[in-house]
Amino acid sequence: MIKYKYKLKYMDEFNIVVLDFDEEKSLEFANMISDPLGSDIPWRFKDLRNDIDNYVDLLRGNISEYRHGGNASSVISYRDYTIIEDPFYDEEEDEIEPICKLETVEFVKIILVWAYETYKYKSERGVIAREEAEMVMNWIKQEMIKVKSIENNELT
Fold first, then answer.
1. Which of 25, 44, 112, 119 is at 20 to 30 A from 140, Cα to Cα?
2. What's the whole-model pTM score?
3. What's the rounded mean pLDDT across residues 26-48?
4. Cβ neighbours of residue 17 closer than 8 Å, sequence gap 6 or more
5. Residue 59: CA atoms inside 13 Å, Cβ hemisphere, count?
6. How large is the average pLDDT for residues 132-141?
7. Distance CA 3, CA 85 (A)
């Protein structure tokens, strides 16, 4: 489903799910992929739907770029690739500027997997209603089908 190697981590104290990309070696600074998830890219359905709609428009070529971030990261996405930067990078203190660049379609799939796992986890813990979680999880499955069909150059 996702091209890059990750592990799911559950932080019970905060009721959050983290996708850990520390073992992914094909991307520089792969650990930065999860930085915007939950902070700059919210899990609440209304906000998530807005972000995914914008990313789908981007992947279809309807918009030229989509910018996000400011809290934990700066995310600039173009149709073919996404750049994740550390907004707190300091030239004087840091030797190398941490920048992660990955395919936008992969980043969108990562967001969808993270959101699905977040709703599943929060529902199991009683943080959100099971009915709400199921509705959003079904929507996420449909969006994943849409994203994969765009990835495979099928008409959607």
1. 25
2. 0.93
3. 90
4. 8, 9, 10, 11, 114, 117, 118, 121
5. 26
6. 98
7. 20
How are strands ordered across the β-sheet holding 81-85? 65-69, 74-78, 81-85, 99-103
Our measurement of the distance from residue 78's CA atom to the centroid of its chain's CA atoms, rounded to an integer in Å, reads 14
Give the total residue count for the chain. 156
Q: Work out the burial of residue 86: count CB atoms within 10 Å of its CB; fewer than 13 is exposed, 13-18 middle, 19 or more buried.
A: middle
Position 70 pLDDT exceeds 90: no
Name the amino acid, one letter, at 144: M
Taking residues 28-36, what's their average pLDDT? 93
* Contact call for residues 51 and 36 (beta carbons, < 8 A): no
Q: What SS3 string covers 21-73?
A: CCCCCCCCCHHHHHCCECCCECCCHHHHHHHHHHHHHHHHCCCCEEEEECCCC
Confidence label for 154 from pLDDT (cuts 50, 70 and 90): low
Query: Residue holding tokens 């529902």?
Result: 123
Encoded tokens for 25: 């070696």
Cα first-last separation, the chain: 19
Report the C-alpha gap between 10 and 31 in whole angstroms. Answer: 16
The token duo for 125 is 């813990």
**Both tokens assigned to 130:** 């099971």
Average pLDDT, the chain: 92
